[in-house]
Write a structure and sequence with these properties.
The complex is a heterodimer. Chain A is α+β, with helices and mostly antiparallel strands. Chain A has three domains: 93 residues, Butyryl-Coa Dehydrogenase, subunit A, domain 1, CATH 1.10.540.10; 107 residues, Butyryl-CoA Dehydrogenase, subunit A, domain 2 (Beta Barrel); 136 residues, Butyryl-CoA Dehydrogenase, subunit A, domain 3 (Up-down Bundle). Chain A is built from twelve helices and ten strands. Chain A has a four-stranded mixed sheet. In chain A, helix 4 runs antiparallel to helix 5. Chain A is globular, with a radius of gyration of 22 Å. Chain B folds into three domains: 112 residues, Acyl-CoA dehydrogenase/oxidase, N-terminal domain (Butyryl-Coa Dehydrogenase, subunit A, domain 1); 91 residues, Butyryl-CoA Dehydrogenase, subunit A, domain 2; 145 residues, Butyryl-CoA Dehydrogenase, subunit A, domain 3, CATH 1.20.140. Chain B has eleven helices and ten strands. A four-stranded mixed sheet of chain B has the order 1-4-5-8, with helices on one face. Chain B has a four-stranded antiparallel sheet with strand order 2-3-7-6, with no helix packed on it. A two-stranded antiparallel sheet of chain B has the order 9-10. In chain B, helix 5 runs antiparallel to helix 7, helix 9 packs antiparallel against helix 10 and helix 9 runs antiparallel to helix 11. The radius of gyration of chain B is 20 Å and the shape is globular. Classes of the chains: A alpha+beta, B alpha+beta. At the A-B interface, helix 7, strand 10, helix 8, helix 9 and helix 12 of A face strand 10, helix 8, helix 9 and helix 11 of B.
Amino acid sequence: MSDLEQFRAETRAWLDANCPEEMRQPLKSQADHCWGGRKWQFQSEAQKVWMERMADKGWTAPQWPKEYGGGGLNQEQAEILAEEMKRINARTPVSNFGFWMLGPALLKFGSEELKREHLPPICRGEIRWCQGYSEPNAGSDLASLQTRAEDKGDHFVVNGQKIWTSYADKADWIFCLVRTDPQATKHNGISFVLFDMESDGVSTRPIELISGESPFCETFFDDVKVDKHQVVGELNRGWDVAKYLLTHERNNIGGEPPGFLKGRALGPLAAEYVGTEHGKLADAGLRADIADLEIDHMAFQALVGKIRAEAEAGQGVGAQSAVLKYYGTELNKRRYELMMDALGSEGLEWDSERTQGGLFAREWLRSKGNSIEGGTSEVMLGIVSKRLLGLPDA
Amino acid sequence: MKLNDEQQMLQDSVARLMADKGPVSHLRQLRDEQSDKGYDEPLWQAMVEAGLTGILVPEEHGGIGFGLVGAGLVAREIGRNLSVTPFLSTAVLGAAALSAGGSDEQKAKWLPAIAEGGAIVALAVDDGAKHRPERLRARVDGGTLSGEKRLVLDGHVADLLLVAAGEGDQAALYLVDPKADGVTIERTVMADSRNAARIRFDGVPAEAMANGGAALAAALRAGRAVLAAELSGLALEAFERTLGYLKERKQFGRLIGTFQALQHRAAQLSGEVAMSEALAMQALDACDRGADDADQQVLAAKAKAARVALLAGQEAVQMHGGIGMTDEFDIGFFLKRARAGGETLGDANYCADRFAALRGY
């Protein structure tokens, strides 16, 4: 048996023995996701046990080094673990911005001290992170941000306002872009700093969205003290970290859609609601639209595979991440439109128990943010045309 | 998927060959000369010498057995240069059909001839204006074939016709001699200046294959997959020529490529072309690997490539403006070929419909 086959056999056996039955059911909605953190209330004993067992194994962050609480797996082993988890429908044990964003940034730019301080609590699901990027006057033009950190000798004092901070009210720590050199040009003079959301002077206010939900907050900083060693990368070079993370974030888009449609095909769903005639969906227009979406999705996945294979061969993803972000999010929006077409009036229900409180309509509306957050579709097309196609500036 | 070293070498050498021996200017020349054969004979000879005519022919029959990924790489370069050859009709459709369903005798007779460039083979499937192989009207009864076929690529120069027809309730391919009594061939020049034929069969002897049903299925699958690669190559070239134009044409005192309206359209088109190419190669690879969902992937790839090629052709003409409408300028050839290639072996709507059926809705 090869090493990888051996690894697969052991992984399968371990998952069978350790993944609780309740954690082998698909998420009913995004509310079933385990975020972790100091304020987290586990929905069940099974959710807690599953997170702890996976964390002990290092498999909440399978590819991070073992010394920081990760699993130390290589790419092939990580793929096997993902396949074996998918085989039994195992849920993600815990995930938040610490795993998706801060961890990769620390691993690339962070000092040894910061890695040892912050990575293990992320892996154990103890600290939940949020991201402080956008400001009321710095959206698509992120580098014009004005939140400032003044040097007070052994610490910084941070003042300003962030917006669209995902789950700021539920997070324990924030990674935040602040201006540390107001004299420097726009992209210089920004630093990437970390601080506790329980620090004096931090306050949050949730923003109600068109979906009726409030995953985003306004976040205010009023003379917040930040320890000076909590700077990731070089002082005033935070834009490098931010750019790396945005690329990383965009690169991660393109997997399965989140929420209700995760793992669900539109064809059978539509058949349930609109019915079939002679074995075909009874709505010919919807049938053609679903086929086109699935074909486009298959083409998108083929491109994702190709770009990742090239990235592993050392050509890097770089600006290609803008292509993935653009198409991944636009496809997801189309998918939710078709879901609503299929569901008819059932999709419109806003508060019935039958629809888990308007899950369909809310997720449909939520999907509209996909092509805005993390860089709008228009910003992505601008990056593609200038950096990939070499079209000139005006 | 990612090309292996052997495939990468094939791509590089074919790219050189096609650009050198089969450029767009040859298409124009063939059209203007009203060539009898209707294809680029020196190019076809060069492809024979390079072994490309035997790319799908197994080694025991004198080919190189390179598989569909290899055939797709050749087709991609054909698409980029709009080369005019019987590659699709003979080396892909003919070789795939005979390999999959021919008797030992049929294989021994025709496959080496295909590999050596000694025979041109044409596939006749469509009974009407649209590709509907599930509802064939041509019939074989007591060993004789009657019916009418359209869009038979290279039909007027073929040495062998492979004709799809129903016998009883089975559909299959039959071998027909184009010179037999009762065969009437009308050459039709298409909008893209390539030739196809309308062929009538009035009680013509039809030779059955060992498994004519499998031969038909294999030919359609291989042809659609390879066409997806050809159309993707065409779309890529049309896009790149257009991108070049955006970087040199000036209006209002500035390069038109500085206008955001055009930048965003170019960016969208580049992504569409990249997805079309990636899916085409993935589908070809799925066929070679015998993947369970290979048929779904091929239908998806053909549908996507047909749409993207047409989009690329339309955008190319539009972004070139007035000059894009002139015959003197080559860009219009890409739009025309996109239309013809998209229609061949099932247009995007047909492929999407079959795709949906395979997906169970």
